[in-house]
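Is this the right way to post C-alpha coordinates for a design question? Let me know if I should format differently. Anyway, here goes:
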Protein backbone atom coordinates (compact mmCIF):
# COMPACT_ATOMS: atom_id res chain seq x y z
CA UNK A 1 0.00 0.00 0.00
CA UNK A 2 2.01 2.93 -1.29
CA UNK A 3 -0.14 5.63 0.23
CA UNK A 4 -0.42 4.30 3.76
CA UNK A 5 3.18 4.51 4.85
CA UNK A 6 4.21 7.20 7.24
CA UNK A 7 7.78 6.11 6.61
CA UNK A 8 8.21 7.56 3.16
CA UNK A 9 11.90 7.67 2.41
CA UNK A 10 11.84 10.23 -0.32
CA UNK A 11 8.36 11.78 -0.32
CA UNK A 12 9.14 13.96 -3.29
CA UNK A 13 10.46 11.09 -5.40
CA UNK A 14 8.28 8.95 -7.61
CA UNK A 15 8.08 5.35 -6.38
CA UNK A 16 10.58 3.30 -8.35
CA UNK A 17 9.59 0.17 -10.16
CA UNK A 18 12.59 -2.13 -10.49
CA UNK A 19 13.26 -5.25 -12.47
CA UNK A 20 13.99 -7.90 -9.85
CA UNK A 21 15.31 -11.45 -10.04
CA UNK A 22 14.20 -13.75 -7.24
CA UNK A 23 16.26 -16.93 -6.87
CA UNK A 24 14.15 -19.86 -5.69
CA UNK A 25 10.43 -20.64 -5.64
CA UNK A 26 10.18 -22.05 -2.13
CA UNK A 27 8.09 -20.34 0.54
CA UNK A 28 10.56 -17.43 0.71
CA UNK A 29 10.74 -16.82 -3.04
CA UNK A 30 6.97 -17.03 -3.44
CA UNK A 31 6.18 -14.44 -0.80
CA UNK A 32 9.09 -12.25 -1.95
CA UNK A 33 7.65 -12.31 -5.48
CA UNK A 34 4.20 -11.41 -4.18
CA UNK A 35 5.43 -8.50 -2.09
CA UNK A 36 7.69 -7.17 -4.85
CA UNK A 37 4.80 -7.20 -7.31
CA UNK A 38 2.43 -5.61 -4.80
CA UNK A 39 4.95 -2.81 -4.54
CA UNK A 40 4.97 -2.32 -8.32
CA UNK A 41 8.20 -4.08 -9.30
CA UNK A 42 8.52 -6.48 -12.24
CA UNK A 43 9.69 -9.88 -11.11
CA UNK A 44 11.20 -13.04 -12.57
CA UNK A 45 11.50 -16.04 -10.25
CA UNK A 46 14.20 -18.56 -11.13
CA UNK A 47 13.56 -22.11 -9.99
CA UNK A 48 15.87 -25.00 -10.76
CA UNK A 49 13.20 -27.60 -9.97
CA UNK A 50 10.10 -28.34 -12.01
CA UNK A 51 7.61 -27.13 -9.41
CA UNK A 52 7.23 -24.61 -6.62
CA UNK A 53 7.59 -25.49 -2.92
CA UNK A 54 11.33 -26.09 -2.35
CA UNK A 55 11.79 -28.03 0.87
CA UNK A 56 8.17 -29.21 0.74
CA UNK A 57 8.58 -31.09 -2.53
CA UNK A 58 9.14 -34.60 -1.18
CA UNK A 59 11.06 -36.93 -3.46
CA UNK A 60 12.22 -40.50 -2.77
CA UNK A 61 15.34 -39.65 -4.80
CA UNK A 62 18.59 -39.33 -2.84
CA UNK A 63 22.03 -38.06 -3.79
CA UNK A 64 24.77 -40.28 -5.21
CA UNK A 65 26.94 -39.52 -2.16
CA UNK A 66 24.75 -40.38 0.90
CA UNK A 67 26.72 -38.07 3.19
CA UNK A 68 26.34 -35.26 0.67
CA UNK A 69 29.95 -34.11 0.51
CA UNK A 70 31.22 -35.10 -2.92
CA UNK A 71 31.46 -31.94 -5.06
CA UNK A 72 30.27 -33.80 -8.19
CA UNK A 73 27.33 -35.58 -6.60
CA UNK A 74 23.88 -35.07 -8.10
CA UNK A 75 22.12 -32.45 -5.96
CA UNK A 76 18.65 -33.22 -4.64
CA UNK A 77 17.26 -30.01 -3.19
CA UNK A 78 14.80 -31.19 -0.57
CA UNK A 79 15.70 -32.87 2.73
CA UNK A 80 12.11 -33.92 3.32
CA UNK A 81 11.44 -37.41 4.69
CA UNK A 82 8.31 -39.42 4.16
CA UNK A 83 6.99 -39.37 7.73
CA UNK A 84 7.47 -35.65 8.35
CA UNK A 85 4.67 -33.77 10.06
CA UNK A 86 5.08 -30.06 10.72
CA UNK A 87 6.62 -29.10 14.05
CA UNK A 88 4.53 -25.91 14.16
CA UNK A 89 0.75 -25.80 14.39
CA UNK A 90 -0.83 -24.71 11.13
CA UNK A 91 -2.24 -21.50 12.67
CA UNK A 92 1.24 -20.00 13.05
CA UNK A 93 2.89 -21.77 10.17
CA UNK A 94 1.10 -19.99 7.35
CA UNK A 95 1.71 -16.57 5.88
CA UNK A 96 0.00 -13.92 7.94
CA UNK A 97 -2.65 -12.84 5.47
CA UNK A 98 -3.16 -16.26 3.86
CA UNK A 99 -4.15 -18.62 6.67
CA UNK A 100 -3.04 -22.24 6.46
CA UNK A 101 -6.53 -23.47 7.29
CA UNK A 102 -7.76 -27.06 6.95
CA UNK A 103 -10.16 -27.21 4.01
CA UNK A 104 -13.13 -29.41 4.82
CA UNK A 105 -14.18 -29.71 1.18
CA UNK A 106 -10.73 -31.05 0.23
CA UNK A 107 -11.16 -34.83 0.05
CA UNK A 108 -7.49 -35.80 -0.03
CA UNK A 109 -6.48 -33.00 2.36
CA UNK A 110 -4.80 -33.52 5.74
CA UNK A 111 -6.84 -31.52 8.25
CA UNK A 112 -4.58 -32.27 11.23
CA UNK A 113 -3.26 -29.32 13.19
CA UNK A 114 0.30 -30.55 12.56
CA UNK A 115 -0.16 -31.93 9.05
CA UNK A 116 2.15 -34.00 6.88
CA UNK A 117 4.44 -32.40 4.31
CA UNK A 118 2.03 -32.89 1.37
CA UNK A 119 -0.47 -30.54 2.97
CA UNK A 120 2.16 -27.79 3.22
CA UNK A 121 3.03 -28.20 -0.46
CA UNK A 122 -0.66 -27.97 -1.29
CA UNK A 123 -0.92 -24.79 0.73
CA UNK A 124 2.05 -23.25 -1.09
CA UNK A 125 0.58 -24.25 -4.44
CA UNK A 126 -2.68 -22.55 -3.45
CA UNK A 127 -0.76 -19.42 -2.47
CA UNK A 128 1.17 -19.35 -5.76
CA UNK A 129 -2.02 -19.87 -7.76
CA UNK A 130 -4.12 -17.30 -5.90
CA UNK A 131 -1.45 -14.62 -6.28
CA UNK A 132 -0.57 -15.50 -9.87
CA UNK A 133 3.04 -16.33 -9.02
CA UNK A 134 3.37 -19.46 -11.21
CA UNK A 135 3.21 -17.29 -14.35
CA UNK A 136 6.39 -15.47 -13.37
CA UNK A 137 8.40 -18.54 -12.36
CA UNK A 138 10.94 -19.87 -14.84
CA UNK A 139 11.03 -23.55 -13.97
CA UNK A 140 14.07 -25.75 -14.57
CA UNK A 141 16.22 -22.62 -14.71
CA UNK A 142 19.17 -22.80 -12.37
CA UNK A 143 20.95 -19.57 -11.55
CA UNK A 144 24.65 -20.28 -11.97
CA UNK A 145 26.08 -16.76 -11.71
CA UNK A 146 25.06 -13.49 -10.09
CA UNK A 147 27.57 -10.65 -10.30
CA UNK A 148 27.71 -6.86 -10.27
CA UNK A 149 27.85 -4.94 -13.53
CA UNK A 150 28.13 -1.24 -14.26
CA UNK A 151 25.53 1.06 -12.78
CA UNK A 152 25.03 -1.14 -9.72
CA UNK A 153 22.97 -3.66 -11.67
CA UNK A 154 23.32 -7.44 -11.57
CA UNK A 155 24.16 -9.91 -14.28
CA UNK A 156 22.20 -13.13 -13.82
CA UNK A 157 23.22 -16.22 -15.78
CA UNK A 158 20.89 -19.17 -15.76
CA UNK A 159 21.19 -22.70 -17.08
CA UNK A 160 17.99 -24.09 -18.47
CA UNK A 161 17.07 -27.75 -18.76
CA UNK A 162 15.20 -27.02 -21.98
CA UNK A 163 16.44 -24.21 -24.16
CA UNK A 164 19.53 -22.07 -24.27
CA UNK A 165 21.29 -20.72 -21.22
CA UNK A 166 20.43 -17.11 -20.51
CA UNK A 167 22.33 -14.02 -19.44
CA UNK A 168 20.31 -11.00 -18.32
CA UNK A 169 20.68 -7.82 -16.32
CA UNK A 170 18.44 -6.97 -13.35
CA UNK A 171 18.18 -3.91 -11.12
CA UNK A 172 18.07 -6.09 -8.02
CA UNK A 173 18.45 -9.70 -6.90
CA UNK A 174 16.64 -11.29 -3.96
CA UNK A 175 18.28 -14.55 -2.87
CA UNK A 176 15.78 -17.16 -1.63
CA UNK A 177 17.65 -20.39 -2.35
CA UNK A 178 17.00 -22.09 1.02
CA UNK A 179 19.58 -23.37 3.46
CA UNK A 180 18.75 -27.01 4.04
CA UNK A 181 20.58 -28.64 1.13
CA UNK A 182 24.32 -28.40 1.78
CA UNK A 183 25.11 -30.84 4.62
CA UNK A 184 27.31 -30.06 7.58
CA UNK A 185 28.85 -33.13 9.19
CA UNK A 186 30.39 -33.82 12.55
CA UNK A 187 34.19 -34.01 12.86
CA UNK A 188 34.92 -37.41 14.40
CA UNK A 189 38.41 -38.57 15.41
CA UNK A 190 39.34 -41.63 13.32
CA UNK A 191 36.56 -41.23 10.77
CA UNK A 192 38.89 -41.57 7.76
CA UNK A 193 39.67 -45.17 8.71
CA UNK A 194 36.09 -46.11 9.68
CA UNK A 195 34.72 -48.60 7.16
CA UNK A 196 31.02 -48.36 7.96
CA UNK A 197 28.43 -46.42 6.02
CA UNK A 198 27.84 -42.70 6.58
CA UNK A 199 24.63 -40.90 5.69
CA UNK A 200 23.48 -37.31 6.25
CA UNK A 201 19.85 -36.70 7.17
CA UNK A 202 19.58 -34.70 3.93
CA UNK A 203 19.46 -38.13 2.24
CA UNK A 204 17.13 -39.78 4.74
CA UNK A 205 13.72 -40.65 3.32
CA UNK A 206 12.37 -43.80 4.98
CA UNK A 207 13.55 -46.14 7.77
CA UNK A 208 13.81 -49.24 5.53
CA UNK A 209 17.56 -48.97 4.71
CA UNK A 210 18.26 -49.07 8.47
CA UNK A 211 16.49 -52.38 9.06
CA UNK A 212 18.47 -54.66 11.44
CA UNK A 213 21.38 -52.21 11.48
CA UNK A 214 23.22 -50.77 14.45
CA UNK A 215 22.94 -47.04 13.90
CA UNK A 216 24.77 -44.14 15.52
CA UNK A 217 22.66 -41.03 15.03
CA UNK A 218 24.44 -37.73 15.71
CA UNK A 219 22.37 -34.68 16.61
CA UNK A 220 19.50 -33.42 18.72
CA UNK A 221 17.51 -31.17 16.38
CA UNK A 222 13.88 -31.66 15.36
CA UNK A 223 14.98 -33.90 12.45
CA UNK A 224 17.22 -35.97 14.72
CA UNK A 225 14.32 -36.58 17.09
CA UNK A 226 11.90 -37.51 14.28
CA UNK A 227 14.36 -39.77 12.48
CA UNK A 228 15.53 -41.59 15.62
CA UNK A 229 11.90 -42.48 16.38
CA UNK A 230 11.35 -43.50 12.77
CA UNK A 231 14.28 -45.88 12.56
CA UNK A 232 13.91 -47.31 16.07
CA UNK A 233 10.98 -49.29 14.63
CA UNK A 234 13.23 -51.29 12.27
CA UNK A 235 16.87 -50.91 13.39
CA UNK A 236 18.58 -53.38 15.70
CA UNK A 237 19.98 -50.56 17.87
CA UNK A 238 19.90 -46.78 17.72
CA UNK A 239 22.57 -44.85 19.66
CA UNK A 240 22.04 -41.11 19.76
CA UNK A 241 25.23 -39.08 20.16
CA UNK A 242 24.62 -35.50 21.22
CA UNK A 243 27.09 -32.79 22.12
CA UNK A 244 24.54 -31.22 24.44
CA UNK A 245 24.58 -34.29 26.70
CA UNK A 246 26.97 -34.65 29.68
CA UNK A 247 30.06 -36.83 29.07
CA UNK A 248 29.19 -39.58 31.53
CA UNK A 249 25.75 -40.18 29.97
CA UNK A 250 24.72 -43.57 28.58
CA UNK A 251 21.03 -44.09 29.20
CA UNK A 252 18.18 -45.98 27.63
CA UNK A 253 15.53 -43.74 26.06
CA UNK A 254 12.24 -44.19 27.91
CA UNK A 255 9.63 -46.01 25.82
CA UNK A 256 12.20 -47.86 23.65
CA UNK A 257 14.09 -51.09 24.17
CA UNK A 258 16.65 -50.43 21.42
CA UNK A 259 17.52 -46.73 21.77
CA UNK A 260 20.23 -45.17 23.93
CA UNK A 261 21.40 -41.63 24.55
CA UNK A 262 25.14 -40.82 24.73
CA UNK A 263 27.30 -37.73 24.74
CA UNK A 264 29.26 -36.96 21.55
CA UNK A 265 31.44 -39.74 20.06
CA UNK A 266 35.04 -39.80 21.35
CA UNK A 267 36.53 -41.78 18.44
CA UNK A 268 35.78 -44.38 15.78
CA UNK A 269 37.99 -47.23 14.59
CA UNK A 270 38.76 -49.40 11.60
CA UNK A 271 37.03 -52.44 13.13
CA UNK A 272 33.71 -50.54 13.17
CA UNK A 273 33.78 -49.67 16.87
CA UNK A 274 32.51 -46.34 18.11
CA UNK A 275 33.83 -45.20 21.47
CA UNK A 276 31.95 -42.78 23.74
CA UNK A 277 33.52 -40.58 26.46
CA UNK A 278 32.07 -42.73 29.28
CA UNK A 279 34.07 -45.69 27.91
CA UNK A 280 31.16 -47.52 26.31
CA UNK A 281 31.86 -49.08 22.90
CA UNK A 282 29.35 -49.87 20.16
CA UNK A 283 30.07 -51.91 17.04
CA UNK A 284 28.09 -49.93 14.48
CA UNK A 285 27.02 -50.35 10.85
CA UNK A 286 25.95 -46.79 10.02
CA UNK A 287 26.63 -43.27 11.25
CA UNK A 288 23.71 -40.99 10.46
CA UNK A 289 24.66 -37.30 10.66
CA UNK A 290 21.64 -35.20 11.66
CA UNK A 291 23.99 -32.28 12.10
CA UNK A 292 22.40 -29.54 10.07
CA UNK A 293 23.31 -27.56 7.00
CA UNK A 294 25.52 -24.79 5.67
CA UNK A 295 24.54 -21.59 3.92
CA UNK A 296 25.68 -21.99 0.36
CA UNK A 297 25.55 -19.50 -2.51
CA UNK A 298 27.66 -21.09 -5.24
CA UNK A 299 26.31 -18.67 -7.87
CA UNK A 300 27.09 -15.46 -5.99
CA UNK A 301 30.14 -13.42 -7.03
CA UNK A 302 30.57 -10.32 -4.84
CA UNK A 303 34.37 -9.95 -4.89
CA UNK A 304 34.51 -11.05 -1.28
CA UNK A 305 31.97 -8.52 -0.03
CA UNK A 306 29.57 -11.25 1.11
CA UNK A 307 31.18 -14.28 2.73
CA UNK A 308 30.08 -17.36 4.63
CA UNK A 309 32.37 -17.90 7.59
CA UNK A 310 31.55 -20.63 10.11
CA UNK A 311 27.94 -20.36 8.99
CA UNK A 312 27.80 -16.60 9.42
CA UNK A 313 26.62 -14.91 6.24
CA UNK A 314 28.15 -11.52 6.46
CA UNK A 315 28.07 -8.72 6.72
CA UNK A 316 24.27 -8.57 6.65
CA UNK A 317 22.24 -5.70 8.06
CA UNK A 318 19.25 -7.21 9.89
CA UNK A 319 20.16 -10.58 8.32
CA UNK A 320 19.00 -9.19 4.95
CA UNK A 321 21.15 -6.54 3.25
CA UNK A 322 24.93 -6.55 2.74
CA UNK A 323 25.55 -2.84 3.50
CA UNK A 324 27.93 -2.26 0.58
CA UNK A 325 25.49 -3.78 -1.91
CA UNK A 326 22.19 -2.60 -0.45
CA UNK A 327 19.50 -2.41 -1.51
CA UNK A 328 20.11 -4.15 -4.83
CA UNK A 329 21.18 -7.44 -3.21
CA UNK A 330 19.15 -8.98 -0.42
CA UNK A 331 18.48 -12.31 1.26
CA UNK A 332 15.18 -13.71 2.51
CA UNK A 333 15.10 -16.56 5.01
CA UNK A 334 18.55 -16.47 6.58
CA UNK A 335 17.49 -16.53 10.28
CA UNK A 336 16.78 -19.95 11.78
CA UNK A 337 14.89 -21.41 14.75
CA UNK A 338 12.02 -19.17 13.72
CA UNK A 339 8.44 -19.28 12.52
CA UNK A 340 9.59 -19.05 8.93
CA UNK A 341 6.75 -18.12 6.58
CA UNK A 342 5.55 -15.07 8.51
CA UNK A 343 9.12 -13.87 8.90
CA UNK A 344 9.73 -14.22 5.16
CA UNK A 345 6.63 -12.09 4.62
CA UNK A 346 7.93 -9.26 6.82
CA UNK A 347 11.40 -9.43 5.30
CA UNK A 348 9.96 -9.35 1.78
CA UNK A 349 7.71 -6.37 2.51
CA UNK A 350 10.68 -4.45 3.82
CA UNK A 351 12.87 -5.28 0.82
CA UNK A 352 10.07 -4.42 -1.64
CA UNK A 353 9.40 -1.07 0.08
CA UNK A 354 13.08 -0.16 0.16
CA UNK A 355 13.54 -1.01 -3.52
CA UNK A 356 10.68 1.29 -4.44
CA UNK A 357 12.08 4.14 -2.29
CA UNK A 358 9.03 4.09 -0.05
CA UNK A 359 11.13 3.06 2.93
CA UNK A 360 14.58 4.44 3.75
CA UNK A 361 17.64 2.45 4.70
CA UNK A 362 20.33 3.98 6.92
CA UNK A 363 23.62 4.92 5.23
CA UNK A 364 26.05 2.11 4.34
CA UNK A 365 28.32 3.23 7.20
CA UNK A 366 25.48 3.17 9.71
CA UNK A 367 24.40 -0.29 8.56
CA UNK A 368 27.95 -1.57 8.80
CA UNK A 369 28.28 -0.16 12.30
CA UNK A 370 25.02 -1.84 13.28
CA UNK A 371 26.31 -5.21 12.01
CA UNK A 372 29.58 -4.76 13.88
CA UNK A 373 27.81 -3.90 17.13
CA UNK A 374 25.51 -6.89 16.67
CA UNK A 375 28.47 -9.27 16.16
CA UNK A 376 30.43 -7.80 19.09
CA UNK A 377 27.44 -8.21 21.40
CA UNK A 378 27.07 -11.83 20.29
CA UNK A 379 30.73 -12.49 20.94
CA UNK A 380 30.57 -10.77 24.33
CA UNK A 381 27.62 -13.02 25.26
CA UNK A 382 29.64 -16.09 24.26
CA UNK A 383 27.39 -16.95 21.32
CA UNK A 384 29.41 -18.94 18.76
CA UNK A 385 29.70 -17.43 15.28
CA UNK A 386 27.76 -20.29 13.75
CA UNK A 387 24.69 -19.15 15.71
CA UNK A 388 24.77 -15.61 14.28
CA UNK A 389 21.45 -16.15 12.51
CA UNK A 390 19.73 -18.17 15.25
CA UNK A 391 17.17 -15.63 16.37
CA UNK A 392 14.55 -17.87 17.98
CA UNK A 393 14.44 -16.04 21.31
CA UNK A 394 13.92 -12.60 19.81
CA UNK A 395 12.31 -13.46 16.49
CA UNK A 396 9.01 -11.74 17.31
CA UNK A 397 10.88 -8.60 18.28
CA UNK A 398 12.71 -8.88 14.96
CA UNK A 399 9.43 -9.33 13.04
CA UNK A 400 7.92 -6.36 14.86
CA UNK A 401 10.94 -4.22 14.02
CA UNK A 402 10.49 -5.07 10.34
CA UNK A 403 6.73 -4.46 10.54
CA UNK A 404 7.19 -1.05 12.09
CA UNK A 405 9.69 -0.12 9.38
CA UNK A 406 7.27 -1.30 6.69
CA UNK A 407 4.32 0.57 8.13
CA UNK A 408 2.35 -2.65 8.56
CA UNK A 409 0.74 -4.12 11.69
CA UNK A 410 3.03 -6.07 14.03
CA UNK A 411 2.53 -9.79 14.76
CA UNK A 412 -0.64 -10.66 16.62
CA UNK A 413 0.08 -11.51 20.26
CA UNK A 414 -1.44 -15.01 19.95
CA UNK A 415 1.31 -16.05 17.50
CA UNK A 416 4.11 -15.67 20.01
CA UNK A 417 2.02 -17.27 22.74
CA UNK A 418 1.20 -20.23 20.48
CA UNK A 419 4.86 -20.67 19.55
CA UNK A 420 5.83 -20.73 23.24
CA UNK A 421 2.92 -23.05 24.08
CA UNK A 422 3.96 -25.50 21.34
CA UNK A 423 7.50 -25.81 22.65
CA UNK A 424 6.29 -26.17 26.21
CA UNK A 425 3.88 -28.86 25.05
CA UNK A 426 6.61 -30.73 23.15
CA UNK A 427 8.70 -30.81 26.33
CA UNK A 428 5.73 -31.96 28.37
CA UNK A 429 4.19 -34.53 26.06
CA UNK A 430 7.11 -35.65 23.90
CA UNK A 431 6.01 -37.21 20.59
CA UNK A 432 2.37 -36.72 21.53
CA UNK A 433 2.62 -32.93 21.22
CA UNK A 434 1.22 -33.12 17.67
CA UNK A 435 -1.91 -34.90 18.98
CA UNK A 436 -2.74 -33.21 22.29
CA UNK A 437 -2.42 -29.62 23.43
CA UNK A 438 -3.76 -27.09 25.88
CA UNK A 439 -3.74 -23.85 23.87
CA UNK A 440 -7.37 -24.06 22.69
CA UNK A 441 -7.97 -20.41 23.62
CA UNK A 442 -5.18 -19.39 21.22
CA UNK A 443 -6.68 -21.44 18.39
CA UNK A 444 -9.94 -19.54 18.91
CA UNK A 445 -8.09 -16.23 18.77
CA UNK A 446 -6.34 -17.31 15.56
CA UNK A 447 -9.62 -18.34 13.95
CA UNK A 448 -11.16 -15.03 14.89
CA UNK A 449 -8.22 -13.23 13.37
CA UNK A 450 -8.34 -15.30 10.15
CA UNK A 451 -11.88 -14.06 9.44
CA UNK A 452 -10.23 -10.91 8.10
CA UNK A 453 -8.66 -12.91 5.31
CA UNK A 454 -11.37 -14.66 3.39
CA UNK A 455 -9.77 -15.34 0.10
P1 LIG B 1 13.43 -23.80 0.13
O1 LIG B 1 12.11 -24.31 0.47
O2 LIG B 1 14.59 -24.68 0.28
O3 LIG B 1 13.35 -23.26 -1.38
C1 LIG B 1 14.47 -22.81 -2.08
C2 LIG B 1 14.20 -22.98 -3.57
O4 LIG B 1 15.29 -22.42 -4.29
C3 LIG B 1 14.09 -24.43 -4.02
O5 LIG B 1 12.90 -24.60 -4.74
C4 LIG B 1 15.32 -24.64 -4.90
O6 LIG B 1 15.10 -25.54 -5.96
C5 LIG B 1 15.59 -23.24 -5.40
N1 LIG B 1 16.99 -22.99 -5.78
C6 LIG B 1 18.09 -23.20 -5.03
N2 LIG B 1 19.20 -22.82 -5.70
C7 LIG B 1 18.78 -22.36 -6.89
C8 LIG B 1 19.45 -21.83 -8.02
N3 LIG B 1 20.78 -21.69 -8.06
N4 LIG B 1 18.71 -21.44 -9.10
C9 LIG B 1 17.36 -21.58 -9.09
N5 LIG B 1 16.68 -22.08 -8.03
C10 LIG B 1 17.38 -22.46 -6.96
N6 LIG B 1 9.39 -25.00 8.58
C11 LIG B 1 8.19 -24.86 9.19
O7 LIG B 1 7.64 -23.76 9.22
N7 LIG B 1 7.56 -25.94 9.78
C12 LIG B 1 8.09 -27.17 9.74
O8 LIG B 1 7.50 -28.11 10.27
C13 LIG B 1 9.34 -27.37 9.07
N8 LIG B 1 9.88 -28.60 8.96
C14 LIG B 1 11.03 -28.75 8.22
C15 LIG B 1 11.55 -30.03 8.05
C16 LIG B 1 12.69 -30.24 7.31
C17 LIG B 1 13.22 -31.63 7.11
C18 LIG B 1 13.37 -29.13 6.76
C19 LIG B 1 14.62 -29.32 5.95
C20 LIG B 1 12.88 -27.86 6.93
C21 LIG B 1 11.70 -27.66 7.67
N9 LIG B 1 11.17 -26.38 7.85
C22 LIG B 1 9.97 -26.22 8.51
C23 LIG B 1 11.88 -25.20 7.36
C24 LIG B 1 11.57 -24.96 5.88
O9 LIG B 1 12.75 -25.16 5.20
C25 LIG B 1 11.00 -23.61 5.70
O10 LIG B 1 9.71 -23.64 6.25
C26 LIG B 1 10.84 -23.13 4.26
O11 LIG B 1 10.10 -24.06 3.53
C27 LIG B 1 12.13 -22.76 3.57
O12 LIG B 1 11.78 -22.03 2.43
P2 LIG B 1 12.85 -21.33 1.49
O13 LIG B 1 12.07 -20.76 0.37
O14 LIG B 1 13.72 -20.46 2.28
O15 LIG B 1 13.79 -22.51 0.97
Amino acid sequence: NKTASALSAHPTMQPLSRHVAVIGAGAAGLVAARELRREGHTVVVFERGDQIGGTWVYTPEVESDPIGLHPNRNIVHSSMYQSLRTNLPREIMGFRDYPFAAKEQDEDGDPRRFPGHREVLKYLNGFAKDFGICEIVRFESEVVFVGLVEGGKWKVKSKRKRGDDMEEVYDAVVVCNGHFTEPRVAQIPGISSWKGKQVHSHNYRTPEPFRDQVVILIGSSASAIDISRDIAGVAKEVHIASRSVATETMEKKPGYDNMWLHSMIKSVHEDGSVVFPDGSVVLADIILHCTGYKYHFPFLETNGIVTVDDNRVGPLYKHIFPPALAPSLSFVGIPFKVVPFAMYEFQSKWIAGILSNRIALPSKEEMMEDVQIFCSLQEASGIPKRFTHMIGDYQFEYDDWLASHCGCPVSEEWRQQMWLATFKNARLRGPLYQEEWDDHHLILQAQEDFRKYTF
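Format looks fine. Someone answered above. Worth noting: The longest helix spans residues 364-380. Residues 23-29, 46-49, 54-56, 77, 79-80, 84, 86-88, 93, 142-143, 176-178, 180, 223, 299, 333, 340 surround flavin-adenine dinucleotide (CB under 6 Å).
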